Amino acid sequence: MFSVNSNFDSGNIHLAGESNGELLLEIRQDRYSEYFQWFHFSVSGDQGSKLQCCIRNAGQAAYLEGWPDYRVCFSYDRKTWHRLDTNFDGQNLRFETQLEGNTIWFAYFEPFSYERHLELVGRAQQHDEVTHEILGLTLDGRPIDLLQIGTPADAKPIIWVTARQHPGESMAEHLVEGLLNELLSDSELGKALRSQAVFYIIPNMNPDGSVRGHLRTNAAGMNLNREWQSPSKEKSPEVFWARSKMISVGGDMFLDIHGDEALPYNFVAASEGVANYSAYMAELENAFRGSLLQRSDQFQTEYGYDIDAPGKANHTVGSNWMGNHFKTLALTLEMPFKDNANDPCSRFGWNGERSQQLGKDMLATVLDLLPHIKRG
Ligand code: ZN
Prior knowledge:
Structural class: alpha+beta
Number of strands: 17
Distance between the termini: 65 Å
Number of domains: 2
CATH superfamily of the largest domain: Zn peptidases
Number of helices: 8
Bound molecules: zinc ion
Oligomer: single chain
Strand order of the largest sheet: 11-12-14-13-15-17-16
Helix content: 25-40%
Shape: globular
CATH class of the largest domain: Alpha Beta
């Protein structure tokens, strides 16, 4: 007999039944939304017993291209998350294992808990050069946390980093944790950046969706990354307050951090199709890509999204709105849910630690770019 549980932070699964020794599981939809793909649950049973899981609604999930070559994440201690061979037959997602303890946890990707988010904010705010500000409240009443790093001055470029608009993309907050650890350290890189720039960092744009175990939306079922043109306090306060702050303080570089279900690569999407696109923006994009290729062996530019034709960008997308409004560099950075196919790791796939390292490496690229920034 197995016991299945998902009644915890970012938990998501429904046990629909059992057949031929297989647990029949279903992922719940995001609240007020059709989207689903994120799952996170535990199974308890006798150590040594064979456990077979079948997620039988995988064929209706948001991104079917996410399942081929996907390998499920599992952990016994909730600290180290390994990968397990997984089969997708077009409808059912199956994986099996022999229990090495009484309880095993499974997740779509290595989770980043709300408690860990609070610890990140608490740790960061103890630094002399950090100010913690609550921009507003979410619909579930959680704070929208902003960390300001460095003291604003006329000559200092303003760098924005936002993560986890899509709550199931937990790798995005792992990246921010790695970035913050480096930025607030005594390393030459951290010190140089703190003296030469000001950072505004929102480690989790969508805490409600994160805690609720959503893939893509907030508590009202809104996809925050389609709300930037006209956000509302009633439906998308997370974007409303973040955007208001951006307008009030300005910005010279915007990095919006995401994960991609399908593509097994790290890549950036720029804002080529926005109305105000300029040679300056193109120059910064090229400089960013060129630098990150040097700084990280996990980054590449061969695979990514199709580039929008001139004037055809969707301005409701965060980085497009930011790039267009501030007429400067704004990128969506995507990491894989699966693995980096250019440097695969069968034990861990792409994971939290690799995301953290990419966040640190990205800071070196930010420093490389500072001389290219024209303020105002
Ligand atoms: Zn995303």
